[in-house]
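agent: user wants the full assembly modeled, not chains individually. Plan: 1) parse entity lines 2) check alphabet per entity 3) run joint structure prediction 4) return tokens. Steps 1-2 passed, two entities, 223 residues total. Proceeding.
--- entities ---
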Amino acid sequence: IAGITQAPTSQILAAGRRMTLRCTQDMRHNAMYWYRQDLGLGLRLIHYSNTAGTTGKGEVPDGYSVSRANTDDFPLTLASAVPSQTSVYFCASSDVGGGNEQFFGPGTRLTVL
Amino acid sequence: QKEVEQNSGPLSVPEGAIASLNCTYSDRGSQSFFWYRQYSGKSPELIMSIYSNGDKEDGRFTAQLNKASQYVSLLIRDSQPSDSATYLCAVMENDYKLSFGAGTTVTVRA
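--- prediction returned ---
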């Protein structure tokens, strides 16, 4: 079934640890995105990639890094997690130029203690 | 500062009624507009997209866009308990990035 998968589903992490959230899509979309969703703040863009090999910063990029080695995968890394990074993280993808509709993965609930 | 504002909720409507959701945006150059539905604990699900002024209907949902007034709305006709969710307005600027509103929570009373 076509779509976006994210792993892990949830994670509890000690502050200072490194963590990579995985995202894979099989729709051959050229663009991918990472958002965090916090109560009262809505969805905020962390990083994005319009095509494989390129990435860009969103609204809240500090403390996060991404890479886009191929079309399908877009991992998000927290180099040294802090409690303020406790959130629900959503990966999304879109076909830029083809309606630009973004489709979301199921999310990863991350708790940093 | 690009902003997307939604009418504050929660919005409670009786079953069978029309739920009306409103959204305004600040960037006059915005080209694409979307409504997402998000059930509690789930990811946002795209339910409507609209690109030109006027109305767009899809089943019980109607999106309305007025670029001159920088206003987009969503009507849910014959509301059902299964429509109870948070509805997110999203606006795309020229750089293909989406800006989201904070969402309006709708509760449909049986």
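agent: reporting back. Chain A has no helices and eleven strands. The first strand of chain A starts at residue 4 and ends at 7.
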